[in-house]
Amino acid sequence: MPSTRDLVSGSVSVGIPGMLAVLACPPPLCPHLEFAVSAVLSSPVSLTWTEQPSSPGSFHAALQWRAPCGTAGRLAGQLRRLGPVSFDVVEGPSPGCDSERYSHTPELGLHRASIAANGDVVVGEAALRALIDRGEGRETLARGLHRLLGTAWDDVLEPLRQGAHGAPVTWLRRTG
C-alpha cells in the first residue's frame, strides 16, 4: 500500500488534490515562495514564472498537487508571511471535509471559504446565525455577508486571475 507521502504512485493516486495560483509575486520573492512551498510539500518545487500583465513588475505561476488533507491551509499560512504576494490556494474535498479556498492579498490579508462542488462559496449556519443575532439592520447584514463570501478579495484578485489565465501549471508528481 502506498504511503500518504506518495502523491502519485503508478496508477494509484494518494492524497487530496490541491492547486496553488500565485497571482502576483515580486521577482525577488519568487525563490522564497518556491522554498516555502517546497517546505510545506516536503518536495523540491520549481515553478514556471510568467509576467503578470495585470500587475506590471510581478510574476504569476501555478502548481497542482496531491497531498494530505490540510495542505492548503498550511501552504496559505506560510505564503501569507512572505509579504506582498497575492494568491489563491484550493484544496479538494476529502472524507468529512468540504473543499476550501484560501485567498490572500497584501492589503486584505487572508480569507478562507468552504467551496461547493459547483464552485460557490458555502457559508455555514453558525456564521449566518451570528450575523442575524447581532440584530443590526440590513446594511450591516449585507456587509457581513460580503465579508463571509470574500467579495473584497474577489474584487481585488479577479483582474489578476484573468491576467494569469492560460498560465503554465507545474504538476508535482511525488513528494518524499
Number of helices: 5
Strand content: 25-35%
The overall pLDDT average reads: 86
Which shape, going by the Cα principal axes? globular
Compressed to H and E, one letter per element, the order equals: EEEHEEHEEEEHHHE
Count of distinct strands: 10
Low-confidence stretches: 1-13
Spatial separation of the terminal alpha carbons: 15 Å
Rounded radius of gyration (Å): 17 Å
Main β-sheet description: 8 strands, mixed
| Percent range of helical residues | 25-40%
Structural class: alpha+beta
What this model shows, in words?
This protein has 176 residues and is an alpha+beta fold. Helix content is 32%, strand content 28%. It has helices spanning 30-41, 71-79, 125-134, 137-149, 151-163, and strands at residues 8-9, 12-13, 16-25, 50-51, 59-67, 86-91, 99-105, 109-115, 121-122, 169-171. Strands 3, 4, 5, 6, 7, 8, 9 and 10 form an 8-stranded mixed beta sheet that branches. Helix 1 packs antiparallel against helix 2 (71-79) and helix 3 packs antiparallel against helix 4 (137-149). It is globular.
Feature tags:
32% helix, alpha+beta, single chain, globular, eight-stranded mixed sheet, 176 residues, two-stranded antiparallel sheet
